[in-house]
Design brief:
The complex is a heterodimer of chains A (about 250) and B (about 230). In chain A, the strands form 2 sheets. In chain A, strands 2-1-3-10-4 form a 5-stranded mixed sheet, sandwiched between helices. The mean pLDDT of chain A is about 90. Chain A is of the alpha/beta class and about 250 residues long. Chain A is globular and about 70 Å long. Chain A has helices at about 1-15, 35-45, 60-65, 80-90, 140-150, 155, 165-175, 185-190, 190-195, 225-230, 235-245; strands at about 20-30, 50-55, 75, 95-100, 105-110, 130, 160-165, 180-185, 200, 210-215. Chain A has 2 domains: about 20-100 and about 210-245, Periplasmic binding protein-like II (D-Maltodextrin-Binding Protein, domain 2), CATH 3.40.190; about 105-200, Periplasmic binding protein-like II (D-Maltodextrin-Binding Protein, domain 2). With about 230 residues, chain B is mostly helical. Chain B has a single domain, classed as MetI-like (MetI-like fold), CATH 1.10.3720.10. Chain B contains 11 helices and no strands. Chain B has helices at about 5-40, 45-55, 60-70, 75-80, 90-120, 120-130, 135-145, 145-160, 165-170, 180-190, 195-225. Chain B is globular. Chain B starts with a helix and ends with a helix. The model of chain B has no long low-confidence stretch (mean pLDDT about 90). Classes of the chains: A alpha/beta (about 250), B mainly alpha (about 230). The interface of A and B includes residues 64, 175 and 177 of A.
Chain lengths: ~250, ~230
């Protein structure tokens, strides 16, 4: 008898985690980490009985996972090329919608970067420079382009360490293991990191634009909540949050 | 099979790392295993548990603490800089140190088992014949534990080759320094280079299987003879 009771308790425990609330899962590029948290909080104010679950990671990884049937309803990519490719494969249930253009900055936990330029990276006191992996992370690609355009690539190449995505890269710099890094402006502008000194905004003439876009995936095609959340991205509150985190919004300059 | 230069570099680095870690652990792990096998100290359970920790700890926990400890503000970081070694994260030796922790139980536990199975008798005999304890260890215990050393070394080597999470967290993915084979495969997958990923992954699979096959075949063979 006690065993039956225990079984019921255990079962109800597992069932209750499967809450009845409507839920969507969002795969978001790591540069959105802080901005998206705030956007979701704002969205929940008007939709209190729903759950928006956000998973942060590298855009390229999500691209692969969505092709393999990952249960994401929306996909926010730091590089518009990925959602475009998914749309071409018939895996998108919405237009490829640009939502922001990202910027890259020089940032350090221990040095004052406000008066630095890319040329300052030649300083022999700087032995480790963190960038996201240019092979697959959009922010890493742009960092490499900027370093090449600034004629610094050959000088700094031996000092580079590579983060798996842009948040991972920021973490290398935040822990002081790399003295300086090229990371997303949106991450530097969050309260936790912006306490630590300033940053140097790398001119966007040195690299291709970090054009970012989202889609509702095929998986989210029938979910009203996914459409509502996409709609909310154009709201005034969302635009205000995105601007505060240093994103340039479509239709603005 | 066509491997790129960077693939070969990653494989060579992995082999070097695993060899270094196995050698270090042979030197460090043997006395620890010996102590665990022979001691009646109350600390024995405690040390045994610490040694076994990497078996159950998520690599992210180990990686996180190592990154903080070895960083410029961590205790290990202070020590290495005081010794003039600089900071360890993103270096080969940082990776080696992390792997020593990570693979510790794979060296210590098989050795401890074989030391325990030897028992007191051979040592007592050696002592009656006038052998010092060190002499007894090298001329009696070592030959008797050949099997344990073989098993422990192979498992340590293979486990270090199979490392991924810790390397990703403290390595920084530097070609020829910290970009080991498992990370190289991850990069290939991330960059959607599935053909390259397949080639490397197949090599890893084959290597791991053959290593274990050799180990089990050798064990079975040895078991029959002894």
């Amino acid at each position: 008898m006690r065993l039956t009771k225990l079984l019921i308790i255990v079962c109800s425990f597992f069932l209750s985690t499967n809450a009845l609330a409507e839920k969507i899962t969002v795969a978001a590029a790591a540069d959105l980490k802080f901005a998206m948290d705030e956007i979701v909080t704002g969205f929940n104010k008007n939709h209190s009985d729903v759950v928006v679950e956000v998973i942060y990671g590298s855009s390229g990884k999500f691209f692969t996972q969505i092709q393999q049937g990952a249960p994401f309803d929306l996909y926010f990519s730091a590089d518009i090329a990925y959602p475009r490719a998914l749309a071409k494969k018939g895996l998108a249930a919405s237009d490829v919608t640009p939502y922001a253009v990202g910027r890259i900055v020089l940032w350090s936990n221990s040095m004052d970067t406000t008066h630095m330029t890319l040329a300052s990276l030649a300083d022999p006191r700087i032995t480790k420079i963190a960038i996201a992996n240019p092979k697959h992370a959009p922010y890493g690609k742009r960092a490499e382009e900027a370093l090449r355009a600034g004629k610094m690539w050959d000088t700094v190449q031996s000092k580079l360490v590579f983060g798996e995505n842009i948040a991972h890269t920021a973490q290398f710099v935040q822990t002081g293991n790399a003295q300086i890094g090229i990371i997303a402006l949106s991450l530097v502008l969050n309260p936790e990191l912006s306490k630590k000194g300033g940053y140097y905004l790398i001119p966007d003439t040195l690299h291709l634009p970090l054009e970012q876009a989202y889609i509702i995936t095929k998986h989210g095609a029938d979910k009203l909540l996914a459409k509502q959340f996409a709609q909310y991205m154009t709201s005034k509150e969302t635009r205000r949050i995105m601007t505060r985190y240093g994103f340039v919004l479509p239709g603005e300059k | 099979m066509i491997l790129t230069e960077s693939d070969l570099q990653a494989i060579w680095l992995t082999v070097r790392l695993a060899t270094v870690v196995t050698v270090i652990l042979l030197l460090v792990g043997t006395p620890v295993a010996w102590w665990l096998a022979r001691s009646r100290s109350r600390l024995k359970g405690m040390i045994g548990a610490v040694v076994a920790l990497p078996l159950v700890l998520p690599p992210s926990v180990l990686g996180f603490y190592l990154l903080l400890a070895m960083g410029p503000n961590g205790p290990v970081g202070h020590l290495t800089r005081a010794l003039g070694l600089g900071n360890l994260p993103f270096t080969f030796w940082g990776l080696a140190l992390a792997s020593v922790f990570y693979s510790l139980p794979f060296m210590v536990q098989p050795l401890q088992n074989v030391f325990e199975s030897i028992g007191d008798r051979p040592l007592e005999v050696a002592a009656t014949l006038g052998a010092s304890r060190l002499d007894a260890f090298f001329s009696v215990v070592l030959p008797l534990s050949r099997r344990g050393f073989m098993t422990a070394s192979i498992l340590t080597f293979a486990h270090t080759v199979g490392e991924f999470g810790v390397v990703l967290m403290i390595g920084g993915n530097i070609p020829g320094v910290t970009r080991v084979a498992s990370v190289q495969i991850y990069d290939h997958v991330e960059a959607l280079e599935y053909a390259s990923a397949h080639r490397m992954a197949a090599i890893m699979l084959l290597f791991s299987f053959l290593t274990l096959l050799a180990l089990y075949a050798w064990r079975a063979d040895n078991g029959k003879r002894s």
